[in-house]
Design goal:
The protein is of the alpha/beta class. About 45% of the residues lie in helices and about 15% in strands. Bound molecules: adenosine-5'-diphosphate (ADP) and magnesium ion (2 copies).
């Protein structure tokens, strides 16, 4: 018989932390906390397998499930001293979803399940507190109707606002039992009106309704989107946790809260959290009341006059502090905790590895390693390379004056500027139209995720550091200011109301998520310094890394940035990019459009000094590190004059009739330039182009070498080779130039000549090509295009459809198609080494900065990866992780 249900509570559990695949993260950690002897309300976890069964069998439950749940409930009842569906001593339950990975797209928790018109009386009598009982009942009706029955929660919020106004109250906590009864009566009738059915009174019906809703929520649109964004397989399913309720809303001796064992924004090793007295569940996160600080130190720092938990409930606080330390030591990581205090008694409701900013992640990993809790290798493995991107974000220049229009909490660091938008849909629309936007909301909810993704930054007028907006923004690495109490959002009139007047949709603001300020207009930004924890972890990573990391750069600015980020050379210098500037493009066009060799040589002579100066500068910056220069590659149409004005300009420079030039343009027209006269084909047709470039490179190497004293060994790369004979032909011309210059300069020049592998034929014939090539660089952009036969520039319109329809999982231009393109690379690497055992191998496509692709490169034992400057740190870390993984295997 399959075991679908695992119980926990009373100091033991059937599950453990490492059973998260089956029990989900929440269930596995609840079990683990029980095993550690921590105070956890008893409960049961229905497995993810049951979810998959349910979804795969037309939403029917497995046969044995009901019985297993009932047996487990009886056990929970015994531990809790009450019974489910017993109207006299009712056991009330929370029903909570919990997948393997924490997923905000899933069903919200239902609390107080089991209450009905009868048991609410027993609950009131049991604790002698009628207000509490009806407060719990109304919460239950509201959550259940929203989450399980699909009635929008706003309906209930409106009624509640209305009644509060009628009774003259401001806070929910001020309502009396009788007033809650009236609210409940209105809730019930609106349910009947809207749904045509009464609110279910039968606890069994309530329970199975909730369980089914959790399972079904695995396939709701929000969850599906979230999974796509985070690469979570749809086959995982979610577990359901059914747990005895404990009550944080039992008056002033009760509370509920959330905490991080370290600061999730900075990583500082201080307990960090918020709580509310006399509250339940998500009140803290929802921003209904402003929460209080847990520690006295945090209260003082925040300048809050509301007492801390430390002062208010010292016993529960010190027990909680002990548990925090215990859990951190046990899991060896910063934990995110949820707890409730019922009449002074502390209950733990959740623990998990806390979400954190990249900065905090680094600091925590480094601190834990230095404290000896984890090894340096483990610290390296803790950081998601992609998250480093956040640290490379700009911050506001501290020397400029700030026009502050609002301030709130520094919820997620970094700064961003953009136009104000008030709805997630507008955020998406405008950003698709190429605009940068800041999403301004009262508060955010999981329905807003797409808008948060599209926005550069987020501002909310309500909510704390653990509000939805704050948590999600930190996860996304977007600047966020939450709870900016001195601004108001008027959605209807699309206005942001500030103390210094209203701002309209479309006006520019800047969010400073590090200080919690919202500024008018745009502000100068600074680029980050990469020292401290970042530097330390990178040092450790470099110590574990085997592959070198180079950068793709052709401008001095890019080369400098890349050096600062630790690049160990240039893996790809695209020479054509050097010809786009004003004075150069005309000479370039002259060269392309020249009718004969002489015309080309005249134009090339103009380009030579510019090209040489560029290389000298690059060589100087790279101080003897390897620099791979690719000869002219592009489809020439990219350079051809298009407008009448451009044509006239070139005609004049070439001293030819415009008409003649137009004829020449016509003759150069290609139907498929990407597969046309480009790459080494240009050098085969017009060797003088390759000769000019080679001359510029060698002369620059001599000049830069003399200037810096560092020996420069240029690596000349011939693009788009499919046949060894092409390579040999071009190579001969380059060697001739090298010999000429050695003679002229009277000194020996060291250099390498190699090729890109970017055509399937080159991969197939790699052994033969290697005889003429001293290095291969895998040009995976073109190799992906030519292997798939998909033009990258035209792919976006149909590749996204492919992804939606599940035909491909990932865009092969972003993450290397290991099964296809990867196999060509593997073959080329093997054959290349067969043809020339000491051949140098690297990768220089976009994939050189993609962690998954980097792992594959390590598997093939490539010598280096090369990526854009801002991805260099990411590649350094990913290469270290890949090397460490190789050691494990
Ligand atoms: P989420 O995954 O959104 O955090 P949870 O299942 O953790 O959802 O539930 C949210 C909140 O509901 C918890 O933080 C806690 O305050 C409250 N809650 C959940 N289970 C219980 C329970 N057994 N007793 C009291 N409150 C609970
Ligand atoms: Mg939730
Ligand atoms: Mg939770």
């Amino acid at each position: 018989m399959t075991k679908w249900v695992y119980t926990f509570g009373d100091g033991t559990a059937e599950g453990t932390a490492d059973m998260r695949d089956l029990l989900g993260g929440k269930g596995a950690n609840l079990a683990e906390m029980c095993n550690l002897g921590l105070p956890v309300p008893p409960g049961l976890t229905i497995t993810t397998e049951a979810c998959n069964w349910y979804l795969g069998n037309a939403r029917a439950y497995p046969d044995e499930l009901a019985e297993q749940v009932n047996t487990a409930l009886a056990h929970i009842g015994k531990v809790a001293g009450r019974d489910f569906a017993d109207a006299k001593r009712p056991l009330l339950l929370s029903v909570r979803s919990g997948a393997r990975a924490s997923m905000p797209g899933m069903m919200d928790t239902v609390l107080n399940l089991g209450l009905n018109d009868e048991s609410v009386l027993a609950l009131a009598e049991g604790v002698g507190d009628e207000r509490f009982a009806y407060d719990s009942y109304r919460r239950f009706i509201q959550m259940y109707s929203d989450v399980v029955m699909g009635l929008d929660h706003e309906v209930f919020e409106e009624i509640l606002e209305d009644e509060k106004a009628r009774f003259g109250h401001e806070l929910d906590t001020e309502l009396t039992a009788d007033e809650w009864k009236q609210v409940i009566a209105r809730y019930k009738s609106v349910i009947e009106e809207e749904l045509g059915q009464a609110f279910p009174q039968d606890p069994q019906q309530q329970l199975w309704g909730a369980i089914g809703a959790v399972f079904s929520s695995w396939t709701n649109a929000r969850a599906v989107t979230y999974r796509q964004l985070h690469d979570i397989p749809s086959g995982w399913g979610t577990a359901v946790n059914v747990q005895a309720m404990v009550f944080g809303n039992l008056g002033d001796g009760s509370a509920t809260g959330v905490a991080f064992t370290r600061n999730p924004s900075t990583g500082e090793n201080t307990l960090y959290g918020e709580f509310l007295v006399n509250a339940q569940g998500e009140d803290v996160v929802a921003g209904i009341r402003t929460p209080q600080n847990i520690t006295e130190a945090a209260r003082i720092e925040a300048g809050s006059d509301k007492p801390s938990l430390e002062k208010l409930m010292p016993d529960a606080f010190s027990e909680f502090l002990g548990i925090c330390n215990r859990l951190e030591n046990h899991y060896k990581d910063m934990q995110d905790l949820e707890f409730t205090i019922e009449n002074g008694k502390l209950w733990m409701l959740q623990t998990r590895a806390g979400k954190r900013t990249a900065r905090a992640g680094l600091r925590i990993a480094v601190d834990l390693a230095e404290a000896g809790m984890i090894t340096k290798q483990e610290a390296i493995g803790r950081i998601d390379p992609a998250s480093l991107d956040q640290l490379l974000h700009p911050t506001i220049d501290p020397s400029v004056s700030r026009d502050v229009i609002g301030s709130g909490l520094p919820a997620s660091p970094g700064a961003a500027t953009g136009e104000i938008v008030f709805t997630p849909d507008e955020a998406v629309e405008k950003s698709e139209a190429g605009k940068k936007v800041i999403l301004v909301r009262v508060e955010t909810s999981p329905e807003d995720i797409h808008g948060m993704h599209a926005a550069q930054g987020i501002v909310t007028s309500r909510g704390g550091m653990t509000s939805h907006a704050a948590v999600v923004a930190r996860g996304m690495g977007k600047p966020c200011v939450s709870g900016a109490g001195n601004i108001r959002v008027d959605i209807r009139r699309k206005l942001l109301l500030t103390e210094s007047g209203p701002l309209k949709e479309g006006e520019i603001i800047t969010v400073d998520g590090s200080s919690g300020q919202v500024l008018r207009g745009s502000v100068p930004m600074l680029h980050p310094e990469l020292s401290g924890d970042f530097g330390r972890l990178m040092e450790w990573a470099d110590g574990s890394r085997r592959m070198k990391v180079r950068t793709n750069a052709e401008t001095p600015a890019d080369a400098n940035v890349a050096r600062k980020f630790g690049a160990e050379g240039i893996g790809l210098c695209r020479t054509e990019h050097m010809f786009f500037e004003d004075d150069r493009i005309v000479a370039m066009r002259e060269m392309i459009l020249a009718g004969d060799e002489e015309g080309r040589r005249t134009a090339l002579a103009q380009l030579l000094p510019m090209q040489r100066a560029d290389f000298v500068e690059l060589f100087e910056i790279m101080k003897g590190l390897p620099v791979t220069i690719r000869l002219l590659d592009p489809p020439l149409h990219e350079f051809l004059p298009k407008t009448d004005e451009e044509i006239a300009e070139v005609a004049e420079a070439m001293k030819v009739e415009e008409e003649l030039l137009r004829q020449r343009l016509e003759a150069l027209h290609e139907f498929n330039p990407m597969l046309g006269h480009r790459g080494c084909r240009l050098a085969v047709s017009y060797p003088e182009i390759a000769e000019m470039q080679a001359r510029a490179i060698f002369e620059a190497a001599v000049e830069a070498g003399a200037k810096t004293g560092e020996h420069v060994v240029p690596e000349i790369m011939i693009p788009l080779v499919g046949m060894m004979t092409e390579l040999e032909y071009v190579k001969k011309h380059i060697e001739k130039v090298a010999n000429d210059i050695m003679e002229e300069a009277g000194q020996k020049i060291d250099y390498l000549i190699g090729t890109m592998i970017e055509l399937p034929r080159a991969a197939i014939r790699a052994d033969v090509i290697a005889e003429a090539a001293e290095f291969f660089s895998f040009g995976t952009n073109d190799l992906t295009q030519t292997t798939f036969g998909i033009s990258r520039d035209d792919a976006s319109s149909f590749l996204s459809t492919y992804q939606k329809k599940g035909i491909i999982e990932r865009d092969p231009f972003i993450s290397l198609d290991i099964a296809g393109v990867g196999q060509l690379i593997r073959m080329a690497a093997e054959k290349g080494r067969a043809g020339r055992p000491d051949i140098k191998l690297g990768i220089c496509g976009e994939h050189g900065g993609d962690p998954t692709s980097i792992h594959f490169c390590e598997e093939l034992a490539l010598d280096y990866v090369s990526c854009s400057p801002f991805r260099v740190p990411i590649a350094r870390l990913a290469a270290a992780q890949a090397a460490l993984k190789g050691e494990d295997a």
